[in-house]
Amino acid sequence: MYAGLADLRAGARLDLARVTLVQLDEYVGVADDARCCLFGWLLRDVARTLGFDADRVLRLSGDAPDPAAEAERHDRAIVAAGGIDVSILGLGPNGHLGFNEPPCGPDAPTRVVDLSEASLVSNARYWGSREAVPLRAITVGMDRLLAARRTMLVVRGSAKREILRRVVAEPMSDDVPASFLRSRPGVTLLADTDAWPDDVPVPADEAVAA
């Protein structure tokens, strides 16, 4: 997806000169030069690919001496920037957005969280083992994510099929934080056919791509 945006920018079909990137989450206790630092990934695979300098990223510091204060500082920076215009999110294996682990309501603030077992297992492939994954993270809160003017939820693969079914077909619930996106305008769901649940009909007015 980001490579596609980079191609549009290279072809002068996308102008990002006035865009600021907002970091979604970061592991607590992880330095900038750590292999799995999320700021490092954002800088390497997104910001530099799209021509952003580091000073155009509202970032989180995982090794800040006071993680709770760092969360509050990041939240204030988002507010000062005018909020989030476009939020690009993935769907966690337990329905989380960012690291807003269930149970989590729509008013949950930017904060330090304990990672769930599902998240520890899901992120083990980046760290080499489940035991190596940090146990805590800072995440932008549900309140900020749901206030975004536009949201894109990107879901791929059969492993996400059951949780996507819960997001789109079950009542909105703290147990599936991503389900609260259904209460907001301006949300686009991009799901491949492997991820779409077999027992949920695709609305007739929606585009379907294999």
Structure description:
Strands 2-6-5 form a three-stranded antiparallel beta sheet, covered by helices on one side. Strands 4-7-8 form a three-stranded parallel beta sheet, with no helix packed on it. A two-stranded parallel sheet has the order 1-3. It has one domain (2-191): Rossmann fold (3-Layer(aba) Sandwich), CATH 3.40.50. The chain starts with a helix and ends in a 19-residue tail after the last strand. It has 210 residues and is α/β, with parallel strands linked by helices. The protein has helices spanning 2-10, 38-47, 67-80, 117-127, 142-146, 161-169, and strands at 21-22, 25-27, 57-58, 86-90, 111-114, 136-139, 150-155, 187-191.
Index terms:
single chain, three-stranded antiparallel sheet, globular, three-stranded parallel sheet, Rossmann fold, about 210 residues, alpha/beta
At CATH level 2, the architecture is: 3-Layer(aba) Sandwich
Given helix and strand content, the structural type is alpha/beta
CATH class placement: Alpha Beta
The structural domain count equals 1
What CATH calls the topology is Rossmann fold
Please tally the β strands and state the result.
8
Radius of gyration, taken over Cα atoms and rounded to an integer in Å = 17 Å
